Here is the input.
Amino acid sequence: MGSLNLLQSVKKNKANTALVIGVVAVVLYFLIDQIQGVRHAATSYDYCVSVCDLFEFTGKIICWTIYAIMAYLTYIQKLYSKWSIWLFYLVAVVFLIHYIWAGHLFEYVFNNIGAEHMDHLPSLARGLFGAPVYFIIFSIFFLPKYIKDTIRLKEEQELTV
Here is the structure.
């Protein structure tokens, strides 16, 4: 039954479906490119830079995906569900997990970068620990409005029932 609804939705919204497929294809292309950079690194420094770039890229993709789902449910579907609120909490958990893994990855990079490239370590640390700062700033401005709109949607749906 769920696949039938998905198929009907795809038939109705061909432009949106093409846009989503295009975005997913571009993201997969860049993700594969990042992985190839890790696989074909010639020196330990190149390897460490590629691993840091891959980690930063996947963190950004995860955060933007969660924000896109939140915006889709609230503003496009005009639908209140428990998922809308749980995604808000998921953002905080993702940030926490990101910083924990960034600390482990930074320690790994510190041990493997090589003495001749230690001067590049601050820029790698800035990429690892600074990537979520944009999403945190975005959250400061976006999430209060999102919570208010979600509560308004919940009240509207309770009134219509």
User: Anything to note?
Assistant: The chain is about 90% helix and 0% strand. The radius of gyration is 20 Å. The chain has a mean pLDDT of 84. Helices lie at 2-12, 14-39, 44-76, 82-112, 121-160.
